[in-house]
Each structure stands twice: as C-alpha cells, then as structure tokens.
Amino acid sequence: xxxxxxxxxxxxxxxxxxxxxxxxxxxxxxxxxxxxxxxxxxxxxxxxxxxxxxxxxxxxxx
Length: 62
Known about the structure:
The chain is an all-alpha fold. It has one domain (3-51). 71% of the residues lie in helices and 0% in strands. The protein has three helices and no strands. The chain has helices at 3-13, 15-35, 40-51. Helix 2 (15-35) packs antiparallel against helix 3. The longest helix has 21 residues, at 15-35.
C-alpha cells in the first residue's frame, strides 16, 4: 500500500475531522482574501467550490 493510499484511508476514516479542518482553513483564507480587497461574492464562490470537494460529500455547514 502506497503512502497516498494510507493517507486517503485515514482521511476517509476521519472525514468529519477533515471537514471541520477544511472549513476552518477556508474561513481563514476567505477572511484574508476579503482583507486584500477580493470581492466577497467571489470569495464565497471559491469557498463553496472547494468545500464541495473536501471532506464529507453533501455536508453543507452554513
């Protein structure tokens, strides 16, 4: 089993924690981007795009 397979297995086992950590990171990145003058709507779209692809599928925490 490769290192990537092990990492994926661990992420699958702890999907809820991965989701929480990714949400925290996305919030921080969004705050930083808005502080740099990026349009809030664009930041929201980017956060939604990434959040849909990380963690538990269909887990919409708003």
